[in-house]
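hey can u check if this looks right to u? its 126 residues, i copy pasted from the old doc so theres a chance i mangled smth
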Amino acid sequence: MAKKRKPKKPSAPKAPALPTVPYASPDGRMTLDLRCSMTPKTRLLYAETVGGEIGQAAMTREDVWHRAVEFLFERLVDGWSVDGVPTTGQKALLARFRVASPDERAWIRTVLREHLAEWFPEMQAP
């Protein structure tokens, strides 16, 4: 007896690729690709993070500032290349960020501030 096949369900349309903007360091060693959109929920979570509402009560102003930078890095960075070595994927990017040199972190903060000013002017930059 032949087995009846179920009709194929139409596949859900793929979400469009979100636009990114590349930023290059002045010395040309690094590039960051940053997303140009954030959901309303992400914006709310960021506002709570910057306001110190998320986290431990004993967090200092500096702790909140570092967490805000890391939050933006997690949500906005789509790719990071250092000396021609690309890093992609959420876990790999965050791991690379956590071992970044002070100069690399300073450049990333500058780029994040510039990107927020251009694409998300209503959001407070860290």
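Residues 31 and 84 are 9 Å apart (CA to CA).
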